[in-house]
């Protein structure tokens, strides 16, 4: 769809990719729906034959044979309906799941979210994936409608071409109405999706910050804010829905008007003897079906426009990758769900001996801040701490190194091997990353640490020890089955950080990357953590300004204005660098 600008490929290209993802299910669904739509052709011919035989007095279908044939047709249609229900659910679910899987894969790999945050991401995954998956079903409905309309019109033209031509009059009106309302439809749908994303995101933010809101006595303000967003969403939803209903009414009533005109004309011809009773029965059976195709045609045009809106919103979430990745075919498991994930398989080249970063650069488009030409080397078993004042590019350095931000310059080498796709290579078991604000899910501590991984008890105990979480674990009555609450609200900030550290440790990474992950720990716990980390000989790259981390470090990388201005031990930097002395004094 060029008007909505869904990238270099049109909407139909993405629809075709969804169709070819599960071609067997789609084809079975298509055949059954086409049979469903063509069924009235047999019923119309049966009605014409029966009434013509009654009118002429000729020997034809008797009531018993007619009833038997009608029952057979009814049973056949019931079987078709049952088949369409089964195949449609499978085909639609798989198409929608593929879209959601690919978007989530990109978000989880890169950490990207839509501009409006979590709310827009959830809205897009839920509503827009549904819309595009539904539209992937329309090609065979359109084909079935064309076949039925073509077959019906052929029969009707053979009976009376003048009466039949009246069917075409509403079609032009329907197409004109759909085209004229295109802009209004698209704008209303975009606004509806935007307000839904705002409301969804705000609800999530309020729930996540419920304690802070209560402590500040801002419950009324929070409710007012949600109320305003709710009213905006209500208004946008009503406008979107009313425009859709308005078009539906035009489509349906235009089709009804055309059918009425045809029936009136046919009735006058019956009085003059030009129309037989069987002809009228045939027209009565076909006409509403053929005329309703005009309504469906208009609905198809408007749905096509709206699916373009959904496609654009989905593409925004994978903008950094090739747009074709949105519909990349993936062999997902459908009938064999796994309760536990197998441990990541280690290859001989996964063992880290040396990691070299050369000239790494990334500048944020909005601010122009970031990192410029940063180079350093990590040796196996060493602890390297990145430090500097706030806003000097420390987090940006880690995220660019890991491929969570697209490097604009520089290279990363793993044991001398150039890493071409950091986002997919620097993952467990090679690398484990714990961000500034670790996320826990609403489940048990065990579920949050393992995240589906199946490991033995010895490794789990070791990970808890290295994360300095063993004392807390023994103090909780439920132990590993302790419910942490949504986002870890039932735990302290330090416990959340240590649970996230245990989650990283249990994967036994070759390189552990930490972004100020000890900020909520008390000094004693923090010292114990860095000491145990050194004893284990784990290679670690950490952002921190805390004394315990700086004292434990083998080397310190000092950033200023996005550049690496010095590196060495704490003692070396204190002796040679004014910025390090000011930082420690502060």
Summed up:
The chain has 586 residues and is α/β, with parallel strands linked by helices. The protein is 61% helix and 10% strand.
Give structural attributes.
586 residues; alpha/beta; ABC transporter transmembrane region fold; Rossmann fold; six-stranded mixed β-sheet; 21 helices; elongated
Report what the structure shows.
By secondary structure, the protein is of the alpha/beta class. The chain has 2 domains: 11-327, ABC transporter transmembrane region fold, CATH 1.20.1560.10; 351-585, Rossmann fold. The chain contains 21 helices and 10 strands. The strands form 2 sheets. A 6-stranded mixed sheet has the order 6-7-8-3-9-10, with helices on both faces. The chain has a 4-stranded antiparallel sheet with strand order 2-1-4-5, covered by helices on one side. Helix 8 (182-208) runs antiparallel to helix 10 (219-271) and helix 15 packs across helix 17 (493-505). The longest helix has 53 residues, at 219-271. The mean pLDDT is 80.
């Amino acid at each position: 769809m060029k008007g909505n600008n869904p990238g270099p490929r049109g909407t139909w290209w993405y629809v075709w990719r969804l169709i070819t993802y599960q071609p067997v299910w789609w084809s079975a669904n298509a055949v059954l729906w086409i049979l469903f739509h063509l069924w009235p052709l047999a019923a119309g011919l049966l009605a014409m034959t029966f009434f013509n035989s009654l009118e002429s007095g000729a020997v034809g279908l008797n009531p018993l044979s007619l009833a038997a044939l009608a029952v057979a047709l009814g049973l056949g249609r019931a079987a078709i309906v049952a088949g369409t229900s089964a195949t449609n659910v499978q085909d639609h679910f798989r198409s929608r799941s593929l879209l959601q899987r690919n978007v989530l894969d990109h978000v989880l790999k890169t950490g990207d979210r839509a501009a409006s945050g979590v709310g827009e991401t959830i809205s897009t995954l839920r509503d827009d994936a549904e819309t595009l998956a539904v539209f992937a079903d329309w090609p065979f409905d359109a084909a079935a409608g064309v076949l039925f309309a073509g077959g019906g019109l052929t029969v009707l033209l053979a009976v009376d071409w003048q009466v039949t031509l009246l069917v075409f009059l509403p079609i032009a009106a329907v197409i004109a109405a759909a085209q004229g309302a295109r802009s209004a439809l698209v704008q209303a749908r975009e606004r509806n999706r935007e307000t839904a994303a705002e409301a969804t995101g705000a609800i999530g933010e309020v729930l996540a910050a419920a304690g802070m809101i209560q402590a500040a006595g801002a419950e009324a303000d929070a409710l007012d804010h949600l109320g305003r967003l709710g009213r905006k969403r209500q208004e946008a939803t009503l406008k979107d829905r009313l425009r859709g209903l308005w078009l539906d009414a035009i489509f349906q009533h235009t089709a009804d008007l055309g059918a009425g005109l045809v029936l009136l004309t046919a009735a006058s011809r019956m009085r003059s003897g030009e129309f037989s009773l069987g002809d009228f029965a045939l027209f009565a059976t076909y006409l509403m079906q053929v005329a309703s195709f005009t309504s469906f045609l208009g609905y198809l045009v408007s749905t096509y426009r709206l699916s373009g809106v959904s496609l654009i919103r989905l593409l925004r979430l994978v903008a950094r990758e090739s747009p074709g990745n949105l519909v990349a075919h993936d062999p997902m498991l459908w009938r064999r769900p796994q309760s536990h994930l197998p441990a990541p398989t280690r290859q001989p080249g996964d063992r880290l001996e040396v990691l070299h970063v050369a000239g790494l650069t990334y500048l944020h488009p909005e601010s122009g801040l970031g990192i410029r030409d940063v180079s350093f080397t990590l040796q196996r078993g060493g602890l390297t701490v990145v430090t500097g004042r706030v806003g000097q590019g420390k987090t940006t350095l880690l995220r660019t190194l890991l491929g969570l931000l697209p490097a604009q310059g520089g290279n990363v080498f793993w044991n001398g091997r150039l890493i071409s796709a950091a986002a997919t290579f620097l993952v467990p078991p090679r690398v484990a990353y714990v961000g500034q604000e670790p996320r826990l899910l609403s489940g048990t501590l065990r579920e949050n640490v393992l995240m589906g991984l199946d490991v033995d008890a010895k490794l789990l105990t070791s990970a808890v020890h290295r994360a300095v979480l063993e004392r807390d674990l023994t103090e909780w009555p439920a132990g590993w089955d302790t419910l942490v609450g949504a986002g870890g609200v039932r735990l302290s900030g330090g416990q959340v950080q240590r649970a996230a550290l245990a989650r990283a440790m249990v994967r036994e990474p070759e390189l552990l990357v930490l972004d100020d992950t000890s900020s909520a720990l008390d000094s004693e716990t923090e010292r114990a953590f860095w000491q145990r980390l050194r004893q284990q000989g784990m290679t670690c790259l950490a952002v921190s300004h805390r004394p315990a981390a700086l004292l434990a470090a083998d080397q310190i990388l000092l950033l200023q204005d996005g550049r690496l201005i010095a590196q060495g031990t704490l003692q070396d930097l204190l002796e040679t660098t004014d910025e390090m002395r000011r930082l420690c004094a502060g």
